[in-house]
Model the fold of this input.
Amino acid sequence: MLDGFLFFTELMTMPVHDLKGRRIARVKDAALVPLVDSARIDRFLVGGAYGWLTLRYDQIRSISLRDGIFLSDEQLTPYHDDEYMLRMGRDLLDQQIIDVTGRKVVRVNDLTLELKNDGVRDSVSVFEVDVGIRSIFRRLFQGVLPPNWIRWLQEPIPPNSIRWDLCNVVEPDPQRRLRLNISYQKLEQMHPADLADIVEDLSPAEREAIFETLDSEVAADALSEVHPKMKASILEALEPEKAADIVEEMSPDEAANVLSELEQETSHEILDEMDTAEKTEVQELLEYKENSAGGMMNTEYVALPENASVADAMAALKGNEDLLESLNTLFLIDEEERLAAVIPVARLFLAAGNARLKELASETLIQVSVDEKQDRVTELFDKYNLLTLPVVDEDSKLAGVITADDIISVLRQK
Amino acid sequence: MRKLLLRFRYHLAIFFAVIGPGFITAVVDNDAGGIFTYSAAGARFGYLPLWTLLPITIVLIITQEMCSRMGAVTGKGLSDLIREEFGLRITFLMMTLLVLANITNVMAEFAGVASSLELFHISRYISVPLAAIAVWFLIVKGNYRNVEKIFLFACVFYITYVISGILVKPDWKEAAIHSVQPKLLLDSDYIYMLIGMVGTTISPWMQFYLQSAVVEKGVTAREYAKSRIEVIVGCVLTNVVTFFIIVACAGAIYSVQPRDIQNAAEAALALKPFGDYAFLLFSAGLFNASIFAACILPLSTAYSVCEGLGFEAGVNRRLREAPIFYLLYTLLIVVGAGVILIPNFPLVRMILLSQVLNGVLLPFVLIFMILLVNKEDLMEGWTNSRPYNLASWATVVIMIGLTLAYLGIVIRGVD
Done:
């Protein structure tokens, strides 16, 4: 099975022969140039009698595990560090990368390279990243035992590898990221909660790099799922503009929560960069104490006048599509914006279009005031099996809602 | 009265605010092995060993400070950094040594559990398996975070040594003189004891544990100043406790009749001003220290190894996701507790061996730490200053010298 394959550990120290078949150097490292090709090894760095030289892939005639590398062109150039080069040995081996499908951070032990012949020359490209015990075994015995023995001895150990195109390299330096053609688009497809788990496993610099480049909406979703303590330090590390973009995409209660964790100066900087509408909403929420109903609630809800009909409700929902995923309750308010009734959304399905919403209201109206204590709020959710709890201010005006997921977060943190 | 109460609450708040990775590491440092070593030193040599405490404190602060700084700046554990900068083979070697050294350290902790409860005539065949199972479940299934607070609070026990150290009316003048006046005896027992004191105070696992704990707590470079204070306070407090353990033993045992301590009952004599409660206090304190360390050691070892070799780790992962982590963790506890139960097991020799392995590993760990902490691309302006480097290299040289001397003595002694 492994005939067309070569491990990076085997490539290292492989002898290089010139046109006459004399051994002139050994492989020291290999590099991709991702802007040209994301997988093909473009250059081999070889060490000979005169220091390191660079060997381009098109100067090679053949590569084999048994005989090493034979050249078709002996004009090697002296090695100089080139910022467009991703060096396997230096930049990849032993470093952490993200396994996008496995949704975790892994450490690179070895690489499986695919050996191809296009009729003119042999070339190798990165096929898989090896993690797990088998590759550790290979690394430990590389150079100690002959490669064939290692291949034979490792057979009983189950392989553990990740396809190269499903890996994401993390690079904190934005300049280098461009040169190496690294993007985090693959990460944007992941579930925000998985992305948050991954981010928690990385170092602060890498974390920052990811949040800097992610689409603000994805970043906001992921940030909401990150451990509360870490949220603040991520935001603090970002440029205020980027931080503001992300905070704007968060729900106002989450945004207020995060901002209240920050130092005053930083949170002001971020607020200054935000759009006015979102800013005032968040600022209002920031006024409340963190562990009061006001501090827990968010201001994203759908409220209708007391005499509205089912058709009106449908129209209102059409205008608030972004809320639909988690919306399960509508509110009725009187002329003075005081909370009048609560309507479970599911009841709309069974009602005629011209029915009054008031007729569909829950029998008992349970509500809390903005300064109700957090413990009391969770108690109410438990007692009345609530999904949503309206919060009213001192004039009984509807100020916001607390949802069950807020309660779960509160309980989990205890 | 109200004012007083408020003041007390304020102090309590400060107490829990100070508690963090640095403080916990320092507290766990005075584990079963530590208590026995210091007691033995005081009982045999009286006030003589006191002068070592000042240099030990400084060395402890230097090493711990570097670790927590690296943790805060890079956000990565020590084994992560060693792996990334020095490759897999060196990491593998270090981790193998760490596991071997720590497995014997775990043995020492369970031996501490056994001997503390044997003071109450509870057989080790009951106490040790129960303790091992309790530790395993507490970490894997239970809520360790809450229990940690109990452990920490129970460390108030060390105050008994302070009180005892005052009540036994030691010779303060002599204690003061010997605290600052270095005295070397050309006596192999004395040198052996000195090295043992350094060895129990500064051990490799602490560096790995502390750095991971700082990372886990999410301390950033900006908040690092606070952590540094915590590290220093922790190190100083540990050695203040050590000072009083030695003084109490010197006053209670040495001044009566200098001798070697053979068992826990003799070590408990240091608390004799507490009368009938001395045994109870001592065994409770020893038990707490041993269990606390037995919780932290296997976990921190399994973490470090898995981090360094790239296996998934963490008690929040399921068994299927992190098999190697759980295997290693369980193995450390099972083997560590298991050997205590083998009749005629050469426990003292094993503990000696653990000191040797600790000693072999420590200079390497320190050298890697200094190399890492001086990498500009890693530490971005947080590298050591020149005098600091001088001090840390001096530490390494002293530690290597002591280790070699120690190895020499141990190898001669074992043969």
